[in-house]
Amino acid sequence: MIVAGLGGGEGVRIVLETEEAMLLSELADQVDSVLLLGEADDPALGRLLPNAYPDDHDAAHDYTRYTRDSLVDGKRQAAQRVRDATAVEEHGGVVQIELDQSEAWGWLTFLTDLRLILAERVGIVDEDEADADETRDDYLRAAYEWAGFVQGSMLEVLDPIKG
Amino acid sequence: MTLTLEQLDTDEALRAAVELPWRTVVWDDPVNLMTYVSYVFRSYFGLPRAEAERLMLLVHTEGRAIVATGNREAMERHAQAMHGYGLQATVERAEP
Predict the structure, then answer these.
(1) Residue B38 resides in a domain
(2) Nearest CA in chain B to A62
(3) With contacts defined as CB-CB under 8 Å, which chain B residues touch A126?
């Protein structure tokens, strides 16, 4: 995986191995499914759609009623765009993706949602315990770390530390 | 003179209390990258880099930071935006 800047720092170019693209496409599809089909008591959904009023049941209910559809739509759209951009048919070679600033935001938020879901599934609840219990699910944990690496690399390009 | 000034201060305080009764709070979570949180604060709130990083570090070290104060509707809009970015945000009444 390589992330480079586009001219003028107004976007990013992401180069993925075909296998990486397939993995990302599959993960994006799963994020979309969680948003579409997730049970109300799925804790991962709780991470994606937090309670704005933990101490006020009625206000929380109203907030959810007014915001949920639009939040779910935005997150699903971001996931679907990543899924479609990374959909490849053949093995071998690389996939090059160019994103402008606004498309890049879609990827950043998708990668965040993906990591929130994976963290919930793997059980990352405390920073200090982030590397405990390593055998629990190596695949999900590797995907979590990798998504963080992709996001971090994108941020280095989109938001370089000056000086 | 002193009286007038004190009167002015009281009015200012009163107006602030009336106008700024709610706030949006962003909470620490073990998932989000510090660089991401800081970039969100800069991009969404239009903050200078130093201020965005100060708030991000506050979230990280204190567990939470007040990122906006104002009327309830505006604070819910900010919370919704933060949720869109995948940050944990709540709305609460400002303490008197």
Answers:
(1) yes
(2) B76
(3) 30
- pLDDT tens digits along B27-47: 999 999 999 999 999 999 999
Give the domain extent around B35.
20-93
> pLDDT (tens digit, 9 = 90+) per residue, A48-77?
999 999 999 999 999 999 999 999 999 999
Q: Closest to A152 (Cβ–Cβ): which among B35, B43, B79?
A: B35
3-state helix/strand/coil string of A78-136: HHHHHHHHCCCCCCCCEEEEEEEHHHHHHHHHHHHHHHHHHHHHHCCCCHHHCCCCCCC
Nearest chain B residue to A101 by CA distance is B43
Q: Do B83 and A49 touch (CB under 8 A)?
A: yes
Residue B39: CATH number of its domain: 3.30.1390.10
Q: What interface predicted TM-score (ipTM) does this complex get? A: 0.89
- Position B96, amino acid: P
Q: Which amino acid is at A99?
A: L
